[in-house]
Predict the structure.
Amino acid sequence: MQSITGSGLPNSHQALLKNQHLLSGRLALLGVASSHLLPELSVSGLAMSEHAGVFRALEHHESWQACFGYDDRALADNSYDSVVVFLPKARAELEMRLALARSLAVDNARLILVGEKKEGIAGAIKQLKATAPQASKVDSARHCQVWCAEAIESAPGFRVQDWLGWSRIECSGVSIDVAGLPGIFSQDGLDNGTRMLLETLAEQPVRADRLLDFACGSGIIGAWIQACQAARETPVASIDGVDVQSQAVICARETYQSNSATGTIFASDGLAGIDGLWPAIISNPPFHTGVKTDTSMTEQFLQDVKRHLQPGGELRLVANSFLPYEALIKRHVGRVERLREDGRFTVYRAFRGQ
C-alpha cells in the first residue's frame, strides 16, 4: 500500500487508503472531497463529487470516470463491485447517497462508509444499518470510522427527482415555488438574509435587463425577481445563476422551470469558471462566520465580481453585518452604500466605476 504520510488529504480519505485492501473489482467513490485521493489508490473506477471545483479536478485523472453530483448520466445502475460512501455534512443527504450507492452496486457488492467522528459518523450508523443491517465497523483511523457491509442488495433506478421537495415562499406579496434537496442551504424556507435582500429589491429594483445571481442556491432570488417584475407588469429581466453545489444547480433549474423563469444556471467554483459580463450581479454569498474572520474569500469574490460586472453596473448583496464588507466593496468595485441593516444583516449596493 502506498504511503499516506503528509498527503494533505482529508481524514476520511486517509482512512480509506489505510483500508484499501477492502476495495476489489469495479470501484465507485461517492462524495470525493479531494482529487489527490485518486492517484493514491491501487484501483480505478468512478469518482463522484457534488462540488464543482473538485469535479473539475477529478476530470484530469484519465483512468477515472468523473461525475458531478447526483444526476450525472455516467452514474450507471448495477455496475460496481465496491462502493465507497464518504459521509456528507447533512444527515439527510446520507440517506440519498446510500440510495445512490445501492443503485450503482451489483448484487452482492461491498458497501463501505467512511466518516469523521466530528462529522457524526456514530449517529450515521443507524442509517447505514437501515440499508445494510449486516454492516460492521472494520477500523478506527485518522479520527474516522470505517464501516463495511458485505453482499448488499442492489436497488437500481435511483432518480434524484424522487428526492425533490417543494415549498412555497412569499416575500413582499410575491410567492414562488422552490425546489429543495437534502444538503442544500436553507432547504426549509427563506432565510432572513435573503428575505432582507428581496425586500430591498422590491423597494429599490435593480435596473438591468440581465442579472447574475452568484451562489444562487435553489434559485429563489432569480425566480422571485422575475415573478415580482411580472406581477408589477414591468419588463422581466433574464437572470443567470451560478453555484458550486450539484444539489443547488439541480434545484435552481427545477425552481426556474416551475416558475417559468428565464436564465442559465451554471455550475462553477466561484466566478473564475464562467465567462461573460452582466449589467448587475446580486448575491447572498456563503461566507463562513466565526470568532476569527478571514476576508480572503470575500476579497477573491469581489475581485472576480469586478471582472464580470459592466462599467457602471450594480452589485447588490446581503451579508452578516460584522463582516468588513463595506471597505472591501469600495476598494474592489466602487462607491458603496448600505440600503438596510438590522444588526444581523446588511444589504449593500455598489456601482462599478467606469
User: Anything to note?
Assistant: The radius of gyration is 22 Å. The mean pLDDT is 91. Residues 1 and 42 are 8 Å apart (CA to CA).
